[in-house]
Amino acid sequence: MTDYVLNPVGEPAQSVKRANLAPRPGSLEGKRIGILDDRVTRSIGNVTEVLGPLVEQRFAPGEVRIWLKPNTGAPSPRALLEDVMRNSDVVILACCA
Across the strands, what pairs with 33? Predict the structure, then answer.
């Protein structure tokens, strides 16, 4: 009998173009801060009870708004992401696995 060792590391079918990072604001003061909670079990409550007030206290934003992803097992719906982008100057993705 022959034993095989398989390597699970794959290579992309074509070259991948790297995206540049979004420009960072010099300050968060007065900015609209959006927090997108991915709703992983351990994050529920933590984002609203800890992260939101912490951002308000440390950075003096104009507004902090929290959105909840409707389903932890699927990507965020396009309409939700567009709402977050339209209503935020800066976005924090809250992933708490």
Answer: 64, 90
Helices (H), the chain: 46, 52-59, 78-86
What's the CA gap between 56 and 58, in Å, rounded? 6
Q: What is the pLDDT of residues 29-74, one digit of tens each?
A: 999 999 998 877 655 566 667 888 999 999 999 999 999 888 878 8
Non-local CB neighbours of 74 within 8 Å, separated by 6+ positions: none
Q: What does each C-alpha distance from 97 to 37, 38, 51 come to in angstroms?
A: 11, 9, 15
Question: In 1-97, at which residue ranges do the beta strands (DSSP E only) sit?
Answer: 32-37, 63-68, 90-94
CB 31 within 8 A of CB 14: no
Distance between CA atoms of residues 62 and 93, nearest Å: 19
> pTM for this structure?
0.72
For residues 55 and 64, the answer to whether their CB atoms sit within 8 Å is yes
